[in-house]
Each structure stands twice: as C-alpha cells, then as structure tokens.
Amino acid sequence: MNILFAGKPFERFRSDFEKVFPGHAIRIEDDMELQNCISWAHIIILRPVPFGEELLSRAGNLILAQQWGVGVEGLDVEACTRYGVYACNVPSRGTGNAEGVAEIALMHMMLLGRRYKRSQEKLLEGKFFTPPGRVMWQKTACVVGLGDVGHCVVERLLGLGMEVVGVNRTMKEEFREWGLKKVYPLEQIGLALKEASWVVLCLTLNEHTRGFFNEECFRNMKEGSFLVNVARGPVLDRQALEKALDEDLIAGAGMDVLWEEPPGAGDPLLQDPRVIITPHIGGVTDASLAGVMKFIAENVHRVARGLEPFSCLNCGKLRQ
C-alpha cells in the first residue's frame, strides 16, 4: 500500500513509520504538494487540516483517509463517502490521547490555583513563601463534556480529593458509576457553574458547540473561579472571555487550544498575567505517539487485507 503522510511535521517520525509500516511505501509531503501526489496514495494520514472535495477528486486510488488524532473538523466525511473512501479518526481513551489531555487540564488547573506566573515574578524578586495559592483538594470542579477526555479528567480530579459535577448533552447510565456529585444536562449548565471553583471544557467542537461558552456562562461562574479549555478554541467565545477577565468575573484562564493556531505574535492573551497558554500539546506525548501509531498501523493492515478499518466514521454508508 502507498501511504501518504500529509504535512512535513510528520518527517520527524519517519524512522518510526518505517518500522511500523514494513512492506508499505511511505511518502511525507508538504500540504502544498498534496494535489500533485494524492493520486499516488492508497492511504492518507492527516493532521488537523482541511481535506475534502478538492483533493478527493484527484485521489483515484485512495481507500482510507485516516486522521492522526481524534478531532475531525477538517475532514469532510460526506465527501469521503461520495468518493467511496473510508474516513477514520483515532479513539481518544486508551491510546494515550485522552489521558494526556486530562493531564494538561490538571496542569493548567494547578498553575492557575498556585498563581504560577506571579510566583515566577516573586522568585526573580528574591522573595519566597509568596504568593499564597489555592489547593484543589475539597473544592468543586465542573467538567463540561463527558466524553473520553471528560471521563479521564473526572477520574483524576476525584483522585485529588475534589468533588466533581458534570455537564453533558445526553444523560447516560454509566455516569452513575463515575463518582460524580451530580450531572446536569447542557441546557442547565448555569446551575453547575455556580458550584465550581474550576471549570474544564472538554466539549467536542461542532455546529452546536461553536461559541457555546459565552458571556452568560461567565456570569454564572462562581466569583474567583478559573476556566480551563482543553477542547477546541472555538467552543469558547473569545470576546466573552476577554470581557470576563476585564470585569473580574473570573480569576484566570488556562488554555491548551486557541481560536487561531498558532496565534499572532501580538495576541494580548499571550501576555496577560491571568492567562496561561500552552501550544496544543495535551495529546503530544510519548504515550499518545505510540498509541496512535499502533492504532493507525492496525487500520492500515486491515485495509490492506480488505477489511473495514476501526473507528470508521462512514462505514456502512459507502457506495457498494
């Protein structure tokens, strides 16, 4: 099989790919060159970039469009279906992705509570035992979105001695077994926010959740609380966040995702002492690299044997 990796960032893993995909031809091409080489590929491995009609119309040999990760905002599943191409992502939990994102969420929570930026200023001033911080122990956290990432976050927060309330679009029986204090439907998020000292966004980005966390949500948050976003930047209304910070509706925000990635060099949030930002690294770990690669390798082997791939978003809908 001819496997095309879309994007030069994959180049650093070439030696790993050659070990994981023995017997298959591998090419790694820049995004701008895909139009010229897509016809060669039986399988394309995608980063979070647009992939749809324009490239599919040139991809006469393509069998599988495989996302490297969970999010599929850029993958046009309907177009893949029209062209008879499997569209797949990678399961989050169990591959190291959800687990890594949950850890980065906790890191942001701790850095905010312990006033990390301010502590570094004090250190440079030669001052110790200041500033005072806030522990997470015996406090309440609200996790918005109880999918794989949300579940991993809940597990870890409970292990720190926190009480956790959840918010989710659908109510599931399994939530009863998670140790949650309470679960609210999405339309009652305001009630959940009033209880929490930390709010963690783990929502999937779609047409219903884009801009979902808005000014009304911030006004329902507990005074002095913190917001952490490890979902996708656009689930959070940026203007509402800036207003909440300016009006001291919240004490600070931590984000591993942004509206534009990378952000402009002059983005004021990068310099805001109340905001901690990391460059979308929650799922970029040793564990997730190994787990995602192993999963994708299995899908490649399945397709090569004429079997349906796992975590398929359009199996059963392809034209026979």
Q: Based on Cα principal axes, name the global outline.
A: globular
Bin the helical content.
25-40%
In total, the number of domains comes to 2
CATH class category name of the largest domain? Alpha Beta
Percentage of residues in DSSP E strands:
15-25%
Q: Which characteristics define this entry?
A:
320 residues, alpha/beta, Rossmann fold, 2 domains, seven-stranded parallel β-sheet, five-stranded parallel β-sheet, 31% helix, 16% strand
Report on this model:
This protein has 320 residues and is an alpha/beta fold. It has helices spanning 14-20, 34-37, 53-56, 77-82, 97-113, 116-124, 148-159, 189-193, 215-220, 238-246, 286-304, and strands at residues 2-6, 25-29, 43-46, 64-67, 86-88, 140-144, 163-168, 182-185, 198-201, 226-229, 252-255, 275-277. The strands form two sheets. A seven-stranded parallel sheet has the order 8-7-6-9-10-11-12. A five-stranded parallel sheet has the order 2-1-3-4-5. The chain has two domains: 2-91 and 286-304, Rossmann fold, CATH 3.40.50; 97-277, Rossmann fold (3-Layer(aba) Sandwich). The mean pLDDT is 95. It has eleven helices and twelve strands.
